[in-house]
Amino acid sequence: MTVKLLLVGGGKMGSAMMAGWLKKSLKPEDVLVVEPFEETRKLLKSTLGVESVPDASGIPADAVPETVVLAVKPQMMDDAIGDYTKFAGPDCVFVSVAAGKTIQYFEQKLGPDAAIVRAMPNTPAAVGRGITVGYPNHLVSESQRKWADELLQSVGEVAWVDDESQIDCVTALSGGGPAYVFLLVEVMAQAGIDNGLPGDLSMQLARATVAGAGELLYQSDDEAATLRKNVTSPGGTTAEALKVLMADDALQPLMTKAIAEATRRSRELAG
What we know:
With 271 residues, the protein is an alpha/beta fold. The chain is built from eleven helices and eight strands. It has helices at 12-24, 38-48, 77-81, 103-110, 142-153, 166-175, 177-194, 199-219, 224-231, 237-245, 251-270, and strands spanning 5-8, 31-34, 51-53, 67-70, 93-96, 115-120, 130-136, 156-160. It is elongated. The model has no long low-confidence stretch (mean pLDDT 94).
C-alpha cells in the first residue's frame, strides 16, 4: 500500500493540519490516519475523504510512509510511540507536534536511526493562520526538512530554530499566545461593562477590535509599534489609556513574567 504520510492522532490539531495538506500538498489516497475515536474517524472520512484505522494494528503490513506525523496528546505518547519504531530509518521522517516531548525523548523511544522534527504549532492553524516553529535532529536530510517545512506551511507561517531549548519559550509565546489574546478580548469587554456599556455590545466591540487589529497587523508591512503610534493622537483618549498600559509596572513586565512562567513549566514537562 502506498502511504506517503501517516498521521497519528486525528483530533483538532491533526485534522486542521490534514485539511491544509490536502489543499496544498497531498491527495486523500496519500494519507492514512490512526485515530481511536470512531466519531472522529467518520468525520475525517466525510469531510476530508481520508481513510483511518483505530490503532496501529490496522496499518497495512506493506505500508512504508515517508512521513509519520505524531499529533497525539503528550500524556498519551508513551503508549503510542512504540508502534512506529519499525518506520525509523533514513527514508522516513517523524514530525512531532506534541508539546514538551524533546528530540532526546523520541530518539530514546524510536531508536538511534530516527530522523525527527520537533515542531510547535498553535491553534490558529485551524483557520490556516497558525505559526509553527521547528527543530530537526541531525538525521533529518535537507529534502526531509524542506518537506516538513512544506507540510507545516500548509497551516500558516513556519520558522526554525538552531537551539532546541528555545522551543520552550516558543511554546510559551506562540503556543499559548492565542489564549492570551482571547483573555485580552475578555478583559477589554469587562472593562467596557465596568464603564457603562451593555455586555453584548462590549463583547462585540472587543472581539471585532482585536480581530480587526490582528488582520491589519497581518496585512501591514509596518512594525507593531508604528501601527500603535498611528492610532495614538497626542493628548487624546488612546494616549491616556496607554499611559496606564505602558507604565513601568504594567503590561510589559506582566507579560514578561507570564512568558517566563510558561517557559519554566514547558521545561518541567520536558523532564
